[in-house]
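Why does residue order matter? Because the sequence determines the fold. Keep that principle in mind as you read this record.
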Amino acid sequence: MRVWVRYLLLQMPGWALASVALYLAWSWYALPPTYAIGGWLAWVAKDLVLYPFVRHAYAQVPSELIGVEQMVGRLAVADEALAPGGYVRLRGELWRAESAVAVEAGERVVIRRVHGLTLHVEPAPDSGGR
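Structure:
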C-alpha cells in the first residue's frame, strides 16, 4: 500500500471525530454552519500540509532491519578483544558479543546466533587472524 494512502486512512478517524465535535458544537451551541464546515476543512488541510513532514514515519521498514534473525550470517568487526566476551560493531551499532575462540580488536567476525541481546560470533573465514 502506498505511503500517502496509508497516511490518509489513518487520518480518517480524526476527521470523523472532528466532524462529530463540530456537529455537536453546531447543534448545542449554535455554531454557524459556515464555521463548522470551515473548521472541518481547516482540520483536513492541516493533515494534508503536515504529510510531507511525517510521511517517513508511515513508510514500511525494510525487511533487513526487522528481527534479530536477519543478523545471523552477517559480518561485524570486533570493537575490542573478545576473550570470551566484548563488543562488536554491526552497521554502526555496538553489540555485546561472545566468542568461543579469542578474537583480536579490529578482526572481522561472523554472527552465528543471537541469544537475547548477545551475539555469538566466530572469526570470519577470510580474516586470516586480522
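The mean pLDDT is 89.
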